[in-house]
Write a structure and sequence with these properties.
9 strands; binds inosinic acid; 182 residues; PRTase-like; purine salvage; nucleotide-binding; EC 2.4.2.8; 6-stranded mixed β-sheet; Rossmann fold; transferase; globular
């Protein structure tokens, strides 16, 4: 299928992201001040830039692990099946865990992943997402920390892709298709 032409309009600048991460890191440091070691779990692939910047602001003893999940819509049942494509390398029982996600959209992914990780009996489990699109929610899920609430727009950059492209943009931008404009 030929690619539709689009441009990317900046929505959240690199500077605004950095400032927000500093604030969030302060809250996380406070929450986990007494931890012996925090397992920071990045959800692949969209969180890889966010987790890299976040952990460098944390100043806590941490470990980093990754998990990859993929969600498939089922229009017939208006439901989603979330599959784990790559599980954690380490055990989290009795450990402090922070799950790091790029966007909470329908909520299925983070809801499923945090439920699954909670069943492994971590000491504390918290979630953080850089972006939240509350108007798109299909399941009752709230992340403990959110960087920015955004409207129902398709966004890219800062690790987030559109058909595997644009992950390397330093800011968050929204995709605007130019063939649909009059
Ligand atoms: P959820 O399960 O619907 O909450 O989906 C979350 C996942 O959908 C995110 O981790 C992203 O990979 C993807 N996603 C949702 N919105 C966007 C977007 O605007 N741009 C790129 N990916 C998105």
């Amino acid at each position: 299928m030929p690619e539709r032409p689009y441009v990317i309009d900046e929505m959240i600048s690199a500077k605004a992201i950095a400032a927000r991460i500093e604030e969030l890191a302060g809250e996380i440091r406070h929450e986990f001040a007494d931890t012996d070691k925090l397992v920071v779990v990045g959800l692949l692939r969209g969180s890889f830039v966010f987790i890299a910047d976040l952990v460098r602001e944390l100043n806590l003893p941490i470990e980093v692990d990754f998990l990859e999940a993929s969600s498939y819509g089922n229009a017939m049942q208006s439901s989603r099946e979330v599959r784990i494509l790559k599980d954690l390398r380490g055990a989290i029982e009795g450990r402090d865990v922070l799950v790091v996600e790029d966007i909470v959209d329908t909520g299925h992914t983070l809801n499923h992943v945090s439920g699954m990780l909670r069943s492994r009996n971590p000491a504390r489990l918290r979630t953080i997402a850089l972006l939240d699109k509350p108007s798109r929610r299909e399941v009752d899920f709230r992340s403990d920390w959110i960087g920015f609430e955004i409207p129902d727009e398709f966004v890219v950059g800062y690790g987030i892709d559109f058909a595997q492209r644009n992950r390397n943009l330093p800011f968050i931008g929204k995709v605007r298709f130019t063939d649909a404009e009059g």
